[in-house]
Specification:
Length: 221
């Protein structure tokens, strides 16, 4: 399906600030990111979602074709990462500081895996396959933010029964990104983190008809 070509117009009222979680994790927040966030949620949820690769506990979809407004978002966020984020914090890759992100790719993701159906790796905090990652939270209902941890010991004998949502065992909680609706958060992918998946919604039909939707942005150097 084709989406409205101006669907992803950014808001002129964007508000930007930095914060540091646990004195370790540098996060760039952009609030009021999109002009039409409710339309984005409604239209992107109609896309053909497929099972996510790797260990994501849900499904992903990509926007088909060359949507001009989405192309502008990718260009703007890449510039933001190169000029603002890298000016605030150093990001390392293969033992060297990154001086430029050359591309950004994006998709939309829903979390809909029942806690009992998670694999072992899906139950634990993870790190991202890219050095810098972005999320736009597109949920007016409470669907959880993003939690960051410091790993303090081995996980071999550590087991949990569902989604990891607090600091315990080998993981010390560093901080949380609040999932404010229409907020873009950009953060380094090297710190262990997990989606804050709590509440009854993930165990019932709400995980399908009112899912946790985020836009993901992967910054590649």
């Amino acid at each position: 399906m084709e989406l409205d070509d101006e669907l992803f117009a950014m808001s002129p009222r964007r508000e930007m600030r930095f914060c540091t979680l646990g004195e370790l994790v540098p996060v760039l927040l952009v609030d009021n990111f999109y002009e039409r966030p409710d339309d984005i949620r409604e239209q992107t949820l109609r896309l053909p979602f497929e099972t996510a690769p790797l260990h994501y506990p849900g499904r992903i979809a990509v926007v088909p074709g060359l949507n001009s407004s989405l192309h502008q978002v990718l260009a703007w966020t890449r510039h933001l990462a190169n000029t603002v984020y890298l000016g605030f914090s150093t990001i390392w890759s293969d033992g060297r500081p990154i001086t430029e992100f050359r591309s950004v790719v994006t998709d939309f993701a829903v979390v809909d895996t029942h806690p009992r159906e998670l694999t072992r790796l899906q139950r634990l905090p993870h790190v991202d396959p890219v050095p810098l990652f972005g999320l736009v939270y597109l949920n007016r209902e409470e669907r959880g933010g993003t939690l960051f941890f410091e790993q303090t010991s081995d996980t071999e004998n550590f087991a949990i029964g569902g989604y990891f949502s607090e600091g315990t065992g080998p993981f010390r909680l560093l901080g949380r990104i609040d999932p404010k609706f229409n907020r873009l958060a950009i953060y380094p992918g090297c710190f262990p983190h997990s989606g804050e998946i709590v509440g009854k919604w993930i165990e019932g039909q709400a995980r399908f008809n009112k899912p946790r939707l985020t836009q993901r942005l992967l910054f590649q150097s």
